[in-house]
Write a structure and sequence with these properties.
This protein starts with 13 loop residues before the first strand and ends in a 15-residue tail after the last helix. The protein has 16 helices and eleven strands. Helix 10 links the parallel strand 5 and strand 6. 38% of the residues lie in helices and 16% in strands. It has helices spanning 23-36, 46-49, 65-68, 89-96, 101-106, 108-112, 140-158, 184-192, 200-210, 227-235, 248-262, 279-283, 287-305, 311-314, 359-379, 408-422, and strands spanning 14-19, 77-83, 117-118, 162-167, 215-217, 239-241, 266-276, 318-325, 332-342, 348-358, 384-385. Bound molecules: nicotinamide-adenine-dinucleotide.
Length: 437
């Protein structure tokens, strides 16, 4: 056993601020309320359903994660957010069609009370959308200040003791890191000068960090993954993480690819195609928003399979990802994967996957876990990029000198070992020789 890290107890209410109150955000919020009212179970959430093994296998110590580390409870959560449409979360959830009407009716009063604040939005960054519920400011700095005012007002009105922010807004157009992102000083000048490389999601992240609020990014946008904002997070002693919730097809990829590599099976091609018909699909129908998503989805296999280390197995494998907007399916996406693999003596084989998934149903528990773990991280004094939360992301943020870890099983081990470290428990190596001495 090592030394425990000092963690402030989770006293009082925890504010959850969501820029972008669309399908994912409302499915998350309605789901938390449904669980609180005993109408459903938080399936898919590690913080609510997961356990953690401690010590030796023979010790039989396997507490629930939520009993092992001091997390806020679901009853502690209070919600707020921003959107470009001035409609209640009830209306959005009904239009989104993710959750069934009979469930929504049972939490209707709660969802009707939840209305977004006016957004910081610019069509230049999300071209397929437009809405009237938008702030007007002289420049991006003034917009950031307005968001900081919103955060302060939310905190005062709800009486929360802590707050976290999770970007659940649309995918913005592809942006490359530029000079203005390289330091906080340049970034703050850029805000004043309305620099075009500062997207709305970055203004939210900046406002959150300035207000002492940890930030997670659920979309593939650059957002908080720039030196200026990681510097601000460290300066403010705040945890940050991102990018792009790992759901659906990429979740499958990061489950299957490590298995193929573990057995030294080769891959000559992986073709992935999707049909989806929700608003996210409509936004991704714009090639510049799709490019942001594509970059995020493509890097996964390269990193897991490491063709530079295993050229005979993975050099030059063909990888293609397509997303097709197909309105009749709504949020119920269908993802097809065709894998061309090869085995002993190079003999070819194929794997076909047809995943009829529900995007927001897979994303909602991720939002919940990120809220609770980011709050824990802040109370434990953890600051800057939280690599142990890579488990939840398609395109995990990591230190500039590292490559991201994409293998779901390594990510889970990293997450659980981080929790063991916080509580002064031995890290688990899975060596296990001691059982046979
Ligand atoms: N559902 C999933 O499985 C999944 C997985 C990974 C990533 N994501 C990402 O999560 C995000 C949300 O997905 P969704 O299905 O809820 O999409 P959605 O279109 O239903 O919701 C996004 C909301 O963000 C709002 N918005 C856009 N720009 C905004 C801004 N600047 N300020 C405030 N609000 C803004 C839109 O009006 C919309 O209501 C998307 O970026 C998506 O790519 C979703």
């Amino acid at each position: 056993m090592g030394e425990q890290v000092e963690i402030q107890p989770p006293q009082g209410k925890l504010g959850v601020l969501l820029p972008g109150m669309g399908a994912v955000a409302t499915t998350f919020v309605a789901g938390v309320e449904a669980v609180r009212r005993g109408l459903g179970k938080p399936i898919g959430s590690l913080t609510q359903m997961g356990t953690i093994r401690l010590g030796k296998r023979s010790d039989k110590r396997v507490p629930a994660i939520r009993d092992f580390v001091p997390l806020a409870t679901l009853d502690d959560l209070v919600f707020g957010g921003w959107d470009i449409r001035d409609e209640s979360s009830y209306q959005t959830a009904v239009h989104g069609g993710v959750l069934e009407r009979h469930l929504l009716e049972q939490v209707r009063d709660f969802l009707e009370d939840l209305r977004p604040m006016p957004a910081v939005f610019d069509r230049h960054y999300v071209r397929r959308l437009d809405g009237p519920h938008v702030k007007k400011g002289q420049n991006k700095r003034e917009l950031a200040e307005m968001l900081q005012d919103d955060i302060r007002r939310f905190q005062a009105e709800t009486g929360v003791t802590r707050t976290v922010m999770v970007w659940c807004g649309s995918t913005e157009v592809f942006l490359k890191p530029e000079e203005v992102h390289q330091s906080l000083e340049l970034f703050e000048c850029g805000l004043k000068e309305n620099h075009p490389a500062i997207a709305p999601s970055m203004i939210y992240a900046y406002a959150a960090l300035k207000s002492g609020v940890p930030f997670a990014n659920g979309a593939p946008n650059l957002t908080v993954d720039v030196p200026a904002l990681t510097e601000l997070a460290r300066e403010q002693s705040l945890p940050i993480c991102g990018k792009d919730f790992k759901t659906g097809q990429t979740l499958m990829k990061t489950i299957i690819a490590p298995g193929l590599k573990a057995r030294m099976l080769g891959l000559s091609g992986w073709f992935s195609t999707n049909i989806l018909g929700n608003r996210d699909g409509e936004v991704l129908d714009d090639p510049d928003s799709f490019k942001t998503k594509e970059e995020s989805k493509l890097s996964v296999l390269e990193h897991i399979l490491q063709p530079e280390i295993y050229p005979e197995l993975y050099d030059g494998f063909y990888h293609k990802v397509r997303i097709n907007y197909y309105p009749p399916r709504g949020d119920n996406k269908e993802g097809w994967d065709n894998l061309d693999i090869f085995g002993w003596l190079g003999y070819p084989m194929q794997i076909k996957i047809d995943f009829l998934c529900r995007d927001s149903i897979l994303a909602a528990p991720i939002v919940l876990d990120l809220v609770l773990f980011l709050d824990l991280a802040k109370r434990a004094g953890m600051r800057g990029i939280q690599e142990w939360l890579s488990f939840y992301f398609k395109s995990p943020m990591c230190a500039p000198t590292l490559y991201p870890e994409h293998d779901l099983f390594i990510q889970l081990m990293k997450l659980k070992n981080t929790l063991r470290h916080l509580r002064g428990e031995d890290l688990i190596t899975h060596l296990g020789l001691e059982y046979y001495d």
